[in-house]
Design a protein that fits this description.
By secondary structure, the protein is mainly alpha-helical. It is built from four helices and two strands, in the order ααββαα. It has a two-stranded antiparallel sheet with strand order 1-2. The protein starts with a helix and ends with a helix.
């Protein structure tokens, strides 16, 4: 049982767990921003353009009007469209952020780039790669 708790402690204090927690917290905060952007900025004009309501979520196709005996039966397509637009905005934003991060990562990993200081481990790997190339060329000459 002690081994189990030691393994869990090692798992919990490693950087991966902390990175994941930070990512979840940032994702939750980012979700609030995107929801506000979609619901308060994009949806009111789209709602007016599509049917006169100020919210797209209010858009629906009434199959049966409400009566005294039964309530209204309607297809609420506005909520679906709002969810699709929300998904597209989140997807586009994540794509742009990851694209920028990858660009910075490639720039940091490029040993020929003098603008950014190359991390020590990358320098060592580049040196090892160069030595292996030299060794292979010497072995091929024999």
């Amino acid at each position: 049982m002690k081994n189990f708790f030691n393994e869990f402690r090692n798992f919990a204090v490693k950087g991966n767990m902390v990175d994941m927690a930070i990512g979840i917290i940032m994702g939750t905060a980012f979700n609030a921003i995107v929801n506000a952007l979609v619901k308060q900025v994009f949806m009111p004009p789209l709602g007016i353009l599509t049917g006169g309501n100020n919210r797209l979520a209010d858009q629906k196709y009434v199959l049966r009007a409400a009566t005294e005996e039964a309530g209204e039966v309607a297809i609420g397509y506005g909520v679906f469209l709002e969810s699709v637009i929300d998904f597209l905005i989140i997807g586009l934003t994540i794509f742009v952020v990851i694209k920028a991060m990858n660009r910075f990562q490639r720039k940091a990993d490029d040993p020929a780039d003098a603008e950014v200081e190359t991390p020590r481990d990358i320098e060592l790997l580049a040196s090892i790669e160069e030595l292996l190339k030299q060794q292979n060329s010497l072995l091929q000459k024999k």
